[in-house]
Structure formats: C-alpha cells, structure tokens
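Recall from the previous lesson that a structure prediction takes nothing but the amino acid sequence as input. Here we apply that procedure to methylmalonate-semialdehyde dehydrogenase (CoA acylating) from Shewanella violacea. The sequence below is the only information supplied.
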Amino acid sequence: MTTQVQHYIDGQFIDGNGKQQISVTNPANNQTIAMINAATVQEVETAIASAKSAFNSWKEVPVSERARVMFRYQHLLKEHHDELATILAQETGKTFDDAKGDVWRGIEVAEHACNIASLLMGETVENVARGIDTYSYSQPLGVCAGITPFNFPAMIPLWMFPLSIACGNTFILKPSEQDPMTPQRLVELFEEAGAPKGVLQLVHGDKTAVDVLLNHQDIKAISFVGSVGVAQYIYKTGTDNLKRVQAFAGAKNHCVVMPDANKQQVINNLVGASVGAAGQRCMALSVAIFVGAAKEWIPELKEAIAKVKPGLWDDKEAGYGPLISPAAKARVLSLIAQGKAEGASCLLDGSEFTVPGYESGNWVGPTVFSKVTTEMTIYKEEIFGPVLCCMESDTLEEAIEIVNASPYGNGTSIFTASGAAARKYQHEIEVGQVGINVPIPVPLPFFSFTGWKGSFYGDQHAYGKQAVRFYTETKTITARWFESQISDAEHTAPNMTIELK
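The prediction returns the following tokens.
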C-alpha cells in the first residue's frame, strides 16, 4: 500500500493537480512506499500568495505569542519523537537510533526558537548627540523559503522554518522529493501547535518548484542545503534576483590524528564518524590524516570498521542503513573502483555487500583506503558513502597544509593530548567548524553552523544568532524631541477623581 504525499497550501492539505508523478521508495528494497503529485507552477504561486497575505497579520503578532506557538510546537515534536523517527527511518533507510538523533537535533533548534524575544532585542544609545537618541529594531523580511536535502529530513527543515517564522516571517518549505513524509508530518504538527493559516506552506516537487521560488519577486530569502552544483545554482539564481541566500554545499572533512592521541578513542570515534549514517552527511569524517607514528594504527582502525554491518532500520545490530537511491549507490561504487584504479590501497572493500532477503537494496559495506593522495578522485570528490580515505604526513604542519589546500571548509577534527598542538590547529586551520578530540563538531543551536569556503555560499549561517540576522532586517531610528514644545497641560498631573461604590 502506497501513501499519497500531500502539499500544505493556504492552510489546506491537498494531493495537488500536478501531472508529474514522483515515486518515493524504500532504500532497503527500492519498493514504492509513497507517491507525489509534483507541484504545478500555479500551486507554488498560490502558496507564495497565501504566505504573503498571512505575513501582513503574522508580523504584527506580539513576539511573546509567536514564542508560545514555538513552545507548543517543541512539546508536540517531543511527544511524537519516536513516531517521527519511525517515519524517517522507513523512508531514508536510517537505523532507528540514527533517525531519533536526526529528529532530536531538529527539536533543539525548535527549542532555541522559543527564546526568540531575547534574540530579537535591538540596541539603544541615549544622547548620541544633545537631546538625540538612537535605537534599533529587528523586523521580519516577508516570505522566506527553504529547500532541503534527503539526508536529514527532520533536522534541516527544523533548522529553517521555526526560527524564520518566530522572527515574524512566513515560510514555504520545499523538501527533498526522496523522503517527503517526514517533512509533511512536521508541518502537520506545526498546524496542531496553533500556527495561523498561511504562515507555513509545504510544496513538493523538483526543479520546477525550486525555480518558481528562486524567481518570484515576493520571496525575500532562500535557505538551501545540498550538493555543490545545486548550491551554486541556488546562490547565483537567487542573488541575481536580489534575494538573500544562504546555500550550504558539499564537504570533504579531514581528521588529523597525532601520535600522542588516545589510540582507542581515535579508533572508536573514527568508526562512527566515517561510516555512520552510510556516510551520507555533510559533516562525516571522510579523510583521516595520520601524523608520524600514528599511521601504525591504520590496520586496527580497519579491523574496527570491518565489524560494522549495515542492516534494516529496525535491526538493533545494524551499524547503518542503505544509501538513499540506486543512483547514489552506483556513484559510490564508481568512486571506489576509481580509487583502486588510481593506485590507492583498498584495505576493506564493501562493494559487494548485501543484506540477505534485501539484495535489491542500495547497500554498500564499509570501505577503507590507505595510501591516498590529494591527486586521486576519491580524495577530491565528496563520496557521500561509507568510505574512509587514510593519508599520512610527517608533521602537523604538513597535515594543516593538506587540509587548507582543500576547496571545502565545513568541518575538521584533531585528536591529540597536546594543548599546544590543538591551539595551533584551531588557529591555523581554514575550516569553519573545528573539533578537538570531538569527531563531528556540529554546534548546538545557540551557536551557528559555520561552514567556510566551497562548503557555503552566503553571509549569514544557519540557526543561532546568525540565522536571526539572516531572517530579519535592522531598522535604526534616530529621534529628537524638544522640551520647549511640551505643553502646560503635559506638565500638570491630571485631576483624578475616585468614586467609591
């Protein structure tokens, strides 16, 4: 039995009239589990018009009332946490524990949106000149839009619309067509939380829907997470249309392992950070640079990774699930083959892995390469699969040079017992998010997600204070009042008569 995925337009859930049918498949066996009628141009434009109309009243709602909607929403998200994780796991293939983490990280951002009143506070200076005061307000932009990827269908939409709406904007969400059921449930719960009609819209589809959002004059800001090529297209098209754009793109995250690090800690952390979630996360550690004698740990690392077995979402023994699609699997297998052909040493090959009874699924087993160089394709490209590339360097300085030469700058980590080495690394590295003895340094929502270089196009990053600045405009007022113009009546206290009954 297949589910009909619905749009949420102008306060109504509808199947849509689009003639293009998009299948949603279970990655474990590639059987269809849901169908989408891709949004028509008219349906997207209707959503935009509804959001624009709703903005006129929503922006006037007191900030405390907007916060109360977020309080109710985060409560509902927690109440339905496992339900959301189950939907997410079934359509992405993620293990249940991984899916629960996806949902929870989104809930944390919704919790942060509950604090919107203090996040929107402006600045004031009295007497900037004689009798003149200056103060500023943060005001919403209007209709904003989010275009989100398949790999985190709960967390990444929740990076976007709760904060944007809490700031006083209205929002249109266009999630990945590969796993749309989780975003639909997020929207259903938002409606249940008491959000007024038109404040949030949901449209499903492909590039047709995206292009309407990018080109429509009533869309003021676009948030995007996805691949490099699409991020560049989103950023260029959006900014050409004079919109604010934050576009999070690809990554190639490096981990530097110093010989003074705790070996077992390094191995334990690298196993999950490299092949966990099937490597389908933009903060995965896909390159490990072993400095000096640390290279002797590579065989033990390979043995530890070899113990990780992919499996079904409800298999408690599974280390991770399948890749999202046959195309994703084919791409990863092609890159593994290129790695072998270009001279890397394949210590562990997951190309032939399968799960009994689910041979048609998008399975790739954990894979480890050593002797990788910066000229190889498996180093240059984001594999987005359960593949770890091991490199070696003689010194920390050499390792830093390798990392800084990469065109990407999403995340990096160093494992060391030396405070001096850690200080040098965090200071000199040209990457936006740095972990010290932490494998995946994704910050909590009161900070911002701060990728650099080719991993991000834009100015203000996701969630935290930067997101509030992205979703608002600053208005500065300079005021002067003349005491000589105060009337005599204003100097006199009103005659107050109290009648007792």
